[in-house]
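Exercise 4. Each item below gives a protein and its sequence. For each, produce the structure-token representation.

Item: Phage minor head protein (Staphylococcus intermedius NCTC 11048).
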Amino acid sequence: MERMASHVMLCGRHSYEFVPGIRKKQQQTVANTKRLLITEAARVQTEAQKIHYLETMRDDAEYEFVAKRDERHQKSIVIMIIKCLKPKT
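Answer:
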């Protein structure tokens, strides 16, 4: 997992490239392995972005979180969510 996270962040690799190796070690289905890798890559990227915000923004700064729905997601999901957030430690 650490190798996958570093390759995704530093080299811009897609997490699906690591499915065969992880599958051998964890004996999971392809779908479960892909879901795990996407979730872990998103967690690492979010944490890296949070650290960047904390290091570069002032205490009174705000950033905007935007989430958009596309055709793959359920209709119950709001089309666009915009929140003004303050970076937290």
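Check: Strands lie at 63-68, 80-85.
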